[in-house]
Structure formats: C-alpha cells, structure tokens
Amino acid sequence: MAEVLSQQEIDALLSALNSGEIQAADVTETKEKVKVYDFKRAMRYSKEQLRSIMRIHENFTRLLTSYLSAQLRTLVQIEIDLVDQVTYNEFIASIPSKTILTVFDVQPMDGKMVMEINPQVAYGVIERLLGGHGDPTTRDGSLTEIETVLIQKVFARGFELYPEGWKNIESIELKMEVIESNPQFLQLASPNDTMIIIALKTTIGEITGRMTICLPHHIVEPVLPKLSTQQWLTSMTKKNIPQQDKLKQNLDHVHVPVIAELGQATLPVSELMQLQVGDVIGIDMDKIHIKLGKTSRFLGNPGIQKGRYAVQIEQIIQTEGDEQ
Question: Main localisation, per the record (predicted)?
C-alpha cells in the first residue's frame, strides 16, 4: 500500500521541486505494468491446485515407503522434492538419456502417466531384491530381461497403492503397460502440452536418487474442479464420519431373523405317532413370543393386516444390558 503524505510534506516537496533542489525523475516511481506471457508454455494450474496435487502424493509416498521397506528389508525414505508444471518437451529434456520409464494406463481418464526411476534407484532396488547390499556403482547399462521383470513386479504392486492417495478426489485404476529405457521412444503428449511433475527424493539404504511422476494435462483436467481447498476439506469431512455413525451404518445392514412363536406343547412319542388329520394339539398360549434370533424380545397378539397374518407388539421383554 502506498504511503499517504501529509499536507505539510506535500508543500515541502513542491517547494523543493520549484527551487530545483530535487528533480521530478528522482521522485517518480516506475512500475512494470506489462508482463511477458509465453503462449507456448501456458500455465494451466493455480498454486492451490498444485498444493492439492502435493497432498495427494504425500499420502501415496507414505504408502509406497512402507511397501518398499517391507519388500527390500531395509530403510527406505521417500519425500516430495518438487511439484511443478512444465511442458512435455522440458520433462523429456530434464531426465537422463538412459533411465527407467514405467508407463501406466489410468482409468477412467483414458490416458497414460509415467514414472521415471533414476538408474541409481532402480539398480539399488534390483541389488536388494537379488540379495546384494544395494550398491549400484558397478552398473552402467540397460536392464536385462530378468531385471525388467523384477522391476515390473515391484512397481506394479507398489502402484496398486496409488489410487488410495486419490480416493478423496476421484476413484481411479492403474495398470502397468510397458517399461522403456530411452525417453525419445516415449510419446505421451505433444512437445508443448502441459504436464505436472512430482519429483520424489528417494533414499534406499545408502543410495539416494530421484523418482519422478509425470501427469499429462488430459488426466488431471477432469478433476480440476475438485482440487480446490474447499472441495478437498469437504470430501475429507464426508470421509471422517464419527465412530458412532459408522457403527449405526454397519448395524443397519445386519440381517436378524424374526420369529413369531405361537406357543409350545409337549407330547409323548406314542401320541405323536398316532396323530391324525384333524386332531387338535393344545398349546400353552397367553401371548405370542416374538424372537430376534433365539432370544424372546417382545410379547404380542395375533391379527390380520391388509389380508396378511400379523402380530401386534404389546410388551417389550427387558433383558440384562438393556438401557432403561
């Protein structure tokens, strides 16, 4: 906010200008009102939307960290290093010429995303899986067929956890399609298409490297309205149902057999064997016992409701543990 001058200060300033003590150029504040905008590199996402993307992937990195730690039997740390929007050409130029690129099909967006795994990280994972100490310094080349299968299995199962991070925003499904080692063979989008990159700093034992998730715009575009902070908090509130309400919801789906028992009678086997059609069996019936499962809970009288047999409840049978 600009500073407001008093009348005395204004008079002194005008007097100094008239006497030539100061020049008008000395007190003129120049501000740049024109900003350069590159239409080839359109920024499609606001800072708020990028923060929502970060929160989604923070949940995923926690799950992936636990999974890899269990698989590799060593300390694994994964944390988000960067979330930014770049063009597809810039993404391809930023990754090594020899790397591990895992392509996933994303539904229902009907698009593909890619996970770039730095060779240091990939070879460290393979070394640990094959019983080594995770030292990839002796490796300098592409993956063998066996190593490719190992990486596919590890990260295919690891990315089964990816939809969990999105569950508050959108229900998605992932399927691993292919692994590439040369970025030039990967054609996910046009060179100037906007991509969101999420760089993950990964430490496996003593090995540190990067994994980078790349999301094309056509995957994120359908859920953009849901990436606002207000929408995020609303979805989280809906998920955080009180425990009492959760129990009530579960109990509403429990099926309990209800039996209306007219009465009971005891007959010797000899009389039972001689029963004929039309015989009458006397029963001890005062009230009909209505049972929930095997427990009598109500007493009632028989009747007819809309042409069907019915029971009118007259009394509740209190049992131990019932609220008064």
Answer: other
